[in-house]
Amino acid sequence: MQEKLEKNKQEALDALDKIEDQDALDRWQSQYLGRNSVVMEAFKSLGTLSKEERPLVGKAANQVKVALESASREKETQLEEQRITESLASERIDVTLPGRRTVSGNIHPTNRTLREIYRIFGDMGFRIYRSREVETDLVNFQMLNFPPHHPARDMQDTFFIKSEGDRADNPLMLRTHTSPGQIHAMQEHTSKYPDDPPPIRIILPGMCYRYEQITSRSEVQFNQVEGLAVGKSITFQDLKGTLSNFARRMFGQSAKTRFRASHFPFTEPSAEMDVGCFLCGGKGCSVCKGAGWLEILGCGMVHPTVLINGGFDPEVYSGFAFGMGPERITMMRHHIEDIRYFWANDLRFLEQF
Amino acid sequence: MKVPISWLKEYVEINLPVEELAHRLTLAGLEVEEIRYVGLPLPADGNQETKISGFAWGRDEIVVGEVREVMPHPDADRLVLCRLDDGKQEHTVLTGASNLFPYLGKGELDPPLKVAYAREGATIIDAYSEEDPAALTTLKRKKIRGVESYSMACSERELGISEEHEGIILLDADAQTGMPLADYMGDAVLDIAITPNIARAASILGVAREVAAITDAKLRTPDLEPVMEGNSIEGKAVIEITNPEDNPRFVLGLIENVKIQPSPYLVQLRLKLAGLRPIDGLVDATNYTMLEIGEPLHAFDYDVLVKRAGGQVPKIITRRAEQGETLTTLDDVERKLDDFTVLVTDKAGPLSLAGVMGGADSEVTSDTVNVLLEGASWNYVNIRRTVSAQALPSEAAYRFERGVHPELAPQGVLRCLEWMRKWTGGTVAKGLVDEYPHPFEDVVVELTPGDVKRWLGITLTTEEIADLLKKLDFGVEIKQDLLVVNTPPHRLDIGEGMVGKADLMEEIARIYGYDRIPESYLAEGLPVQAGNRELDLEEKIRDSLAGLGLQEIVTYRMTSPAQELRARPPQEKAPEIDYVELSNPISAEKTVLRRDLLASMLEVVEKNFRNRDRIALFEIGPVFVPSEKGQEIQEITTLGICLSGKRNLPSWQSTDREIMGFYDLKGLVEELVSILHISGVKYLPESAPGFHPGKSARIEADGNLLGYLGEVHPQVVGNYGLPDRPLPAALLDVASLLAGVNELYEVTPVHDQPPVLEDLALVVDEEVPAGDVESLVRQTGGKTLREVRLFDVYRGEQLGEGKKSLAYSLVYQHPEKTLTDKEVLAIRNKIVKRLEKEVGAQLRSW
What we know:
Chain A is α+β, with helices and mostly antiparallel strands. Chain A has helices spanning 2-18, 22-33, 38-45, 53-90, 109-123, 137-140, 180-192, 236-251, 304-309, 326-333, 341-344, 347-350; strands at 127-128, 134-136, 160-161, 172-174, 200-209, 221-231, 257-264, 267-276, 293-302, 318-324.
């Protein structure tokens, strides 16, 4: 009997070796471990055996059973692994096919640039102040130190608004710059804190209008972002430091700045800040027109007359102001050659941001 | 202001390369916009901070030549041959220059004609190039009509001086034959942008003064003592100033027996390089002096004035124009004058528009013999108003409307008389007639080093500050810690008191150098911190809508009533809409400020629909509403949303490509108000102008109007030529949205008790709004009914005519316990009963 079992075991193991699929394994299991298998027959026959033979055959049968079961499990695992491998090998997709498209929206390029500017100045303690687009001559010009007939008005051709009744020297107009907001903000502030007003730091964004033919370089409407800081110890050095810091955050830590003398009626001294061309590193390219420098913003120390008009005593307070064009900055950063794209709203343009 | 370097060098020594000088001027606020090289060598390639144009004349190839004889061409009437000496040898040079024909056949010329001679191999401008006016060409040997030609006597065009190409350049007789032309008259012209505060630099002398200050060189002032060999001017002319406010100073000089002839070539050249046209020695002298010193001058024909005075001594009267008065100016235009226009007149009437343009009657002509020369000072406001009213800009007015110091009036007259004497050979009468009723008092400003520290942040001593200011000719007196600063008598831009201090700060900073001032950070404590809730909300809307797949647009705020009317169906009577109107619109499409975002958005759809089959847009911006009298204008920030076309982008995989309609946009609006936490939002059937009457809704939050939502009226869709399909749009008031936002919204706890899910289908009359049914379900279900979601709307025969079935999926959940079937049934029955009672709903049997 033991021999028969041993022979059967060898036969079973040999057969198992050749098995390549689950069906064959199932059949093998029923043949060698099933009810009518040699091993099971051996267990069934134990009752008929002698007292001496019984443990020997029992032990042998059990060993064969354990060996076959273990081999069977091993085979089963092997077959499963084989099956998974085969299945994975057959389940290929073309990963180069385009993905399922989701609809995604987008924020207008000017507003994206404005947000960056807000964020940078926000970190320096500037808050955002907005004011109206329809202004009076008084606030848009006169209080900013442009008297009637001042030649500096030539630089800001104005859209006037019809109104009934004579407004004499104070016609309604579309603001030509965001600077009238300085007057509104300072007046609100100094009337809220009439005694010893605390410092002001604000950013004034918004749409401005100039009577200019629409060309690739000029538009009838454009945004400006203006900044104003007023306090008791603000100097031209602070203006340079604050704006150079801004330039480094906006255009990269290696951005160089330079300040050259300029003129705005509402600042004195006045300056233009140029930034070393961030596209060519100052070597000269099509964007900086070979100059190596880009004109980024106008700035200066707030004119004493403007401080007075805002309710501040210029003997005690000083401040600086600056203004820049977010469209222009966007154009430089993205090589846009034509400002008309901004309000043309061609989706083929807007979707690229 | 175009400044030839050669001219500038007469008043200040310049050792810097031209580009370096341009750089220094630019940093000091005299922005050099372009350097135009006329003969002088251009800088080596590389970084060109300033725009550069022009070309260099080869020193060996282009020289002063002398034409000794002009001879006929054997074979061509329109050409001549010149015997020309270039300092080395004689050449035969062929030319068609018209200004040589008078010398034809005159034999040996004595003196010879000095010309600009380009040798063989010289590079000059190709005057015959049609494509490029600046194209260069190199002279090569060739035969023209049988005569060998290899060199050329040049025109101004060929040397890049002007457009003149009829004749060749005829140089002054003292030009040295054989000298490189670049050495003789090569130049570089700086084009400087003059800002209003720096009007004093609208002259060569003014720029020289700045150059001297920033390069630490000494200014050479022009000689103001003309040779006066005539009789005294006394008794030859009288001046009467009616209003010294308008005309602070008026100066006259006299030159007699002038002979009108062209001015020397080098004078003409400078005028051309500075942008003016040479006329003759007399007129050129006035223009030359204006450019040189900055004082505009006007020459009268003295004999005409005497004649107008009936042989008496002419009396010049300055006054405002009278009502209805006219003057024919020297451009032959009869001009109606305004009451603000200041005139120079005599007893016979107006002579000139003061400071702007002379009159035709008394102008100098080629027959003029005696000249009365005016130098004056005018109030800039009158000049400016006159220039603008007469649309008559001029070089003189350019300077006067920016302010010319009265001290320049006699200086200009004296300098000009000398030029006139030199260029017309006249005799200058001794002395001037000078009326100066209210002498201008130059401003005195007091300043301390503490002021400099407070404004600029830098620490300078009184001496250092004084040195900086003295470079610009300020008179400075130091009294211990105080500087008493006297404004020099050529500038009007320094204010008084605090303003004067600020003005001086700029001068100190400019001359010290903006680049030398260090950088620092704001040292003061942070200001009062306050956010900007309106902007925060707008930005949140932007983020939300972009996240929901919408593209932000920004459109023109200017439009026309006709354009906005396109967003209305034709039968909708154009209501009497008041617009904010521009009094000077730039075009017929931009005459008013918009009152509506709908038209703007539809124009964008119109522009894009052929390129995109899904369009989803929004804009946040103001609309403008006038009040009764056009005095108060409301700017109402509005959110516009618009959808057009297919729900999804095309894909190779199957996807929902239905056309977007009302419910797509309503879904977006619902999502937006939920992101913003606006509660109590209701959609009520109501149409707004331009919308489909049956497919639009009024949106309210707790009874306050937020705006409108609907499909655009089909005829409006047609107005824009868009496909005949739904086009949903919404217009919302941003301030009302903001008012509805609840920032402190409550978050409910999340429970793990098992929910009970069931469906409920109700049949109601068609007219019953689904919104009412849903809110009844919610109200009745109470807190235990956690979710109500409509999943089907069905209409069909078995329901009967005029009926619809609304099927809801309901979720019941109790925060603390598991609901029993009995409890759920009780709520459900309550709901059904309530709906049956309130809206006649029947439970639908499946």
